[in-house]
Amino acid sequence: MTLLVTGGAGFIGSNFVLDWLRQSDEPIVNLDALTYAGNLENLKSLDGDARHHFVKGDIGDRALVDQLLATHRPRAIVHFAAESHVDRSIHGPGAFMKTNVDGTFTLLEAARAYWGALDADAKAAFRFHHVSTDEVYGSLKPEDPPFAETHPYEPNSPYSASKAASDHLVRAWHHTYGLPVLTTNCSNNYGPYHFPEKLIPLMIVNALAGKPLPVYGDGQQIRDWLYVTDHCSGIRAVLAGGRVGETYNIGGWNEKANIDIVNTVCALLDELRPSADGPYARLITYVKDRPGHDRRYAIDARKIERELGWRPAETFETGIRKTVQWYLDHPEWVARVQSGAYRDWVSTQYGA
Predict the structure, then answer these.
(1) CA–CA separation, 229 vs 15, rounded Å?
(2) Engineered SS bond to 76: which of 31, 127, 185, 221, CB 3.0-4.6 Å?
(3) DSSP structural state of residue 98
């Protein structure tokens, strides 16, 4: 048996691939276009591992997806591939529509054709697992209860709108065509291999370089933080036992304001890698808030706990310490990501 994983060289996808192969001998076919945030160095420990078959390609390439499905006969597709940075979506929404909407549509159509031709047993066992975000639900007021799976969709950025559209496509392909789908909506992930444009790795990398730590607005935007390997275990639980056609929220039960996250990172760096110039918090710099910035996200993850027995293993305190330590231990990964050297290596290895 085999899984087809899309976007498996990105932050969450690569963590999922590594986590899966630590616990299972079931092979993975990993399809990733290696855009700016896809990085084969994340998967370097799998070099020579016959269980991991990497294919550089786009989920929007129907012929390629058809060929992979026909050749490898996967029992499930786990769909991570997405453009995911809100700031980038504000400046260039077109790429988000192409990947998140058109790409998901192409993948669904390929999956539908493949699934429809399977024998009865394989057809019953097949799953299309769509990985999404809590941002599709919009923004919460301070007194509002966390997002449950029944919360209405109210996306407020081009990124969240594109993910909401992809969620609706997945739902429609189940209800119209019977495709056996699963959807998970996660809260903010953090952990190893996080591209350093997102809040936590950006704060770590900038602090170590003595650069300003930019904080939007008043820094009181609240997010629910989920350690990435907890997200991976949640996906495994849903893939194994989730009810077809259902949505499961995966959250960390860790609501934190952005400024509190930044101060926590600074305090850990003060402890683990103190600066001769003084506390890292001196670098905090408040900048103009971004357009349409959602004020609060929070995930109600009781459904996945009730139905599948899943809860996160990490507290925020344990997860953030592991994350900061990982970046301190892997300066070469950060340097190559920032310099673009890993992209040059990919061009050499796989052709331009």
Answers:
(1) 7
(2) 127
(3) I
DSSP class of residue 299 equals B
What's the CATH number where 12 sits? 3.40.50.720
Long-range CB pairs of 118-126, under 8 A, 24+ apart, other chains included: 122/75, 124/180, 125/75, 126/75, 126/76, 126/180
Distance CA(61)–CA(179), nearest Å, equals 20
Tokens of 29: 């076919």
Query: 186 phi and psi, to 5 degrees?
Result: -105, 160
What is the CA angle 50-341-131, rounded to 5?
55
For residue 76, what are its two tokens?
A: 């499930």
The CA angle 257-262-265, to the nearest 5 degrees, is 125
Contacts of 14 (CB under 8 A, 6+ apart): 8, 39, 42, 43, 193
pLDDT in tens, 2-40: 999 999 999 999 999 999 999 999 999 999 999 877 899
Q: Active-site residue numbers?
A: 134-135, 159
Q: Which domain holds residue 279?
A: 3-350
